[in-house]
Amino acid sequence: MRNLFPYSYLIISLCFTIIINAQESQLSTRDFQQHFDQAKKLSRANLYSESIEELTKSIKLAQLNYLEKEEIQATIFLAETLRKTRDYDKGAALLLRLKNTEKYPLEHVKKLGRLAAIYHESSFDDRQQTVDSVSKYINLGLEFADSYDFEIEKALLKNEFGHLIGGSDALPYHLEAAQLFLKNNDRHNYVGAMTKVLNIYQNTIHDHDKADSIIQILLKETGGKNWHTAEVELFNIIAYQYILKSGDSLNYFKWKDKANKSLIKYSAAIGSERLDNFRVQQETLNFQNEAINAQLALTQQEIRTRNLFIYLSILIVIILSIAILFYRELILRNKLKVMNQQLETANKQYQMLMIESNHRIKNNLQMVISMFEFAETTPNVNDLTVIKRMSRKIQTISALHKHLYADVHNEKVSLEIYFNEIIKLYSDLSTTHFIISHQFENAEIRSQRIVYFGLIFNEMLSNTMEHSKAAAKQAHIEISKDNEIFTFYYKDNSPWDLNYKEGTGSVLIRQLVERVGGFDFLFDPKNGQFNFSFHV
Fold this sequence. Notes:
It is an enzyme of class 2 (transferase). This protein is of the alpha+beta class.
């Protein structure tokens, strides 16, 4: 589960990043399109400087947001606008700097067509150089247009090439362009191409019958439409047709008048567009305000989205951390439960083993005691004394194991209970009257250590029985406590032999006291008094 945590966090972060980038991309594309559409409106109103300003903003937006195709579209339109303002060098430089246009075939063909138009209108001093340069870009554009079946673009390039070469040689190019425009229902460009065909038949080839038939077609196409510039050109050609054909000045002035009226209508339309400039400028201002508001809204949305991402990330981290901790705690609890069960099983086995061991030790010690009791039938007095001393020591140890067996194994044993067992044992073994008084401050001592206290007490009682000369033997034992220090006190009021040399019973007692960690050991042979201190 811990291994899944970094991957979960990575997937969540990736999802949020994709969502944020998608939102930003949509907003950036929308902003670009708003500036681009506004530039087109301004261009149609002949407000070229304002249009160029909007196009520049569009291009910057596209570059900042890596909108390559949109950047190419805006740059081509900017170059066309510069051509209209006769800034040919800047327009050509912009188009020549455009890279990767081949990735977008339609935009690439448009770029080549605009380059051809710019070089044609800029007119080099050398006529042949102009033809060569324009032909180069038109031929490249036609190759792409044919490859991708861009018929409108092909028609525009054909028309441009016919306009370039002029004369009767241009006729097939204008005718092919006209047919392509008509096929694609582009009536306005169809009229423009056929007007050029009409001009060739009338002024170059002088085929007036063919010219008359074309005039009828064009009059029908322009009727009822507000194509004023097309009407001006067409009406002027018809007027000259009457002069060239029959010298009919009446019809000449009639059609000239129509041409002038169409020109006036065109001027009125231009004037109307000029009057609309204020509205367009106001729309531009409104658009700019909308753009500012949109940018502000975008910034606020980005802040909210990032904050949401941070909060959700923190929440997910907290939830996953809690889940990991809970999972680890569950594992530890299960391990602890298994360990406790194993310890409980081991403890039960250990207790059974200790019970069995204490029981067998007690039985074995009883067998040894029985053997010593059997040996007491020997007549040797010295041997009998030794046997009795050994028997009492063994019985002291046996009493402890009997106590351990009865209590079903405790880690600590009560000193008071153990000493009372020894006192009872000596009272039963003594052939003479033996009084043992006692006062115990109970202490709980570990079982492996308390056996040495039993041997100390046994050695003191044995010495009293052997060395006391009183008819009625008596001894007093006391265990007292001061703070955390216990004091062992024993006295039997029987003076030891003045010739006694320390080295037998007292030395053994001193060694046993050291074994239990006793300190401040004192022995007074005048009245058989022992005392020492110890810690539990």
